[in-house]
């Protein structure tokens, strides 16, 4: 992609991922952009300003009250000159200050003075990312129209494994190009393919405050959506309730119940090359939903719920005359012969590939960061994968889908 003449302002805050921002600056410069860098004081504890000066060919701004800059009201000049602001890494602290409109250093002051597109790449410990305060700040920033890229799921410098690591420079680069309206995309083996992914759990309402749900976090489905987008596919993610951030380059539709997920799939399944049903959809739903909260009463009696079956979304798609070329189902099992159960489900559902795991096995349960799966192919062959991180599992699944979609397949 050609960024010649584009003016990019890169803001770097104080996280270990700041070293990745040096590579991001290099990608921008290589594409022809005029890159200016501003750094928080904490960022300079991880990467020196001289590194970014050498990569960008421009002086690096580090202080709000710089006598030479402020003679021309430097922070206003920087905001006026930029066409896009990219904040990478964006720590939990920076997200909080941006969300609340603080202007207590150069980066936040320039942000408040800027009126163009903003691309934010969060990076922090998984517990910090999952905290309610951070998620509230993220939603505030999304509501302002800012583009959030990641964070990714994987091993972190602190030793934890989970969601919170900064997205790769290439992903942030692509998101920035899109924010600038630059046509084209990095070539990938799924470029031109249209993929639908379902992820997360569903919630079946009992009354306005209670629901029937399950333990799915959505991590597996989100990893698959991210991997498909990284390979160049146009990805639509139909997501049940989750705390995860939308993967870069993915269009997301939020739903809550099994019926809402089925309706979203029906509305968007046409002309898809592949559909991957990773969501843990409820099999049963209350036949009646109370309009008011059900009181437990003083008699100490329990409550009886009448449940009905939900629609089988996967089987419904495979039965369509215009079904996608590759349909992938998932099976979360407990105990017994997993391979036999997976083969049986693939045949019953009519899908091309079936991914199964035993959620009672260590490392393969809901909400974890790893998974051990087997993949059943069209001829009932079994590909047993070792214990891997969920992004690694996603890559192996997309390898199979990519092969399936090749013209000679």
| Chain-averaged pLDDT | 87
- Strand segment tally: 21
Note the total helix count: 14
- State the name of the first-level CATH class of the largest domain: Alpha Beta
Query: How many domains in all?
Result: 2
Contiguous uncertain segments of 5+ residues: 67-73
CATH superfamily of the largest domain: CoaB-like
Secondary-structure content class = alpha/beta
> How far apart are the first and last residues' alpha carbons, in Å?
31 Å
At CATH level 2, the architecture of the largest domain is 3-Layer(aba) Sandwich
Question: What features would you describe in this structure?
Answer:
The chain has 409 residues and is α/β, with parallel strands linked by helices. It has 2 domains: 7-180, Rossmann fold; 194-290 and 300-405, Rossmann fold (3-Layer(aba) Sandwich), CATH 3.40.50.10300. It is 33% helix and 22% strand. The chain is built from 14 helices and 21 strands. The chain has an 8-stranded mixed β-sheet, with helices on both faces. Helix 1 (18-30) links the parallel strand 1 (7-12) and strand 2 (34-39). Helix 1 (18-30) crosses helix 9 (169-180) and helix 5 crosses helix 8 (132-143). The longest helix has 16 residues, at 390-405. The model is unreliable at 67-73 (pLDDT under 50).
List keywords for this structure.
409 residues; alpha/beta; Rossmann fold; 14 helices; 33% helix
Lay out the secondary structure.
Elements: E1 7-12, H1 18-30, E2 34-39, H2 49-56, H3 67-70, H4 74-81, E3 84-90, H5 92-99, H6 106-113, E4 118-122, H7 126-130, H8 132-143, E5 147-148, E6 152-155, E7 161-165, H9 169-180, E8 194-199, E9 204-205, E10 211-212, H10 219-230, E11 234-239, E12 250-254, H11 258-268, E13 274-277, E14 284-286, E15 307-309, H12 313-318, E16 326-333, H13 338-349, E17 353-358, E18 370-371, E19 374-376, E20 382-384, E21 388-389, H14 390-405
Parallel strand pairs: 1-2, 1-3, 3-4, 4-5, 8-11, 8-13, 11-12, 13-16, 16-17
Antiparallel strand pairs: 6-7, 9-10, 14-15, 17-19, 18-21, 19-20
């Amino acid at each position: 992609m050609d960024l010649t003449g584009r003016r990019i302002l890169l803001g770097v805050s104080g996280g270990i991922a700041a070293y990745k921002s040096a590579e991001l600056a290099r990608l921008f410069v290589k594409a022809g952009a005029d890159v200016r860098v501003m750094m928080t004081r904490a960022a300079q504890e991880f990467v020196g300003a001289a590194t970014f000066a050498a990569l960008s060919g421009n002086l690096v701004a580090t202080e709000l009250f710089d006598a030479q800059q402020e003679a021309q009201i430097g922070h206003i000049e920087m905001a006026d000159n930029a066409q896009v602001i990219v904040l990478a890494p964006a720590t939990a602290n920076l997200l909080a200050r941006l969300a609340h409109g603080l202007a207590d250093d150069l980066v936040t002051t320039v942000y408040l003075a800027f009126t163009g597109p903003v691309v934010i790449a969060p990076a922090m410990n998984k517990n910090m990312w999952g905290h309610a305060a951070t998620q509230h700040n993220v939603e505030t920033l999304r509501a302002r129209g800012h583009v959030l890229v990641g964070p990714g799921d994987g091993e972190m410098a602190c030793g934890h494994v989970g969601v919170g690591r900064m997205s790769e420079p290439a992903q942030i680069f692509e998101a920035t190009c899109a924010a600038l309206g630059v046509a084209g995309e990095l070539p990938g083996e799924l470029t031109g393919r249209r993929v639908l992914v379902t992820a997360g759990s569903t919630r079946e309402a009992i009354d306005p405050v209670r629901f029937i749900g399950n333990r799915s976090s959505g991590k597996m489905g989100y990893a698959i959506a991210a991997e498909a987008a990284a390979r160049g596919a146009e990805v639509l993610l139909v997501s049940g309730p989750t705390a995860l951030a939308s993967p870069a380059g993915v269009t997301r539709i939020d739903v809550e119940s099994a019926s809402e997920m089925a309706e979203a799939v029906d509305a968007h399944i046409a002309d898809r090359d592949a559909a991957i049903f990773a969501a843990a959809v409820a099999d049963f739903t209350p036949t009646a939903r109370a309009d008011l909260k059900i009181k437990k009463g003083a008699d100490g009696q329990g409550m009886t719920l009448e449940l009905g079956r939900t629609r089988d979304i996967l089987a419904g798609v495979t039965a369509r005359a215009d079904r996608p070329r590759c349909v992938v189902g998932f099976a979360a099992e407990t105990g017994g012969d997993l391979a036999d159960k997976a083969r049986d489900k693939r045949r019953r559902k009519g899908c091309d590939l079936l991914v199964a795991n035993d959620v009672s096995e260590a490392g393969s349960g809901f909400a974890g960061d790893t998974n051990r799966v087997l993949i059943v192919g069209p001829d009932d062959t079994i590909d047993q994968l070792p214990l891997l991180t969920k992004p690694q599992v996603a890559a192996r699944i997309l390898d199979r889908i990519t092969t399936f979609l090749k013209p000679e397949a």
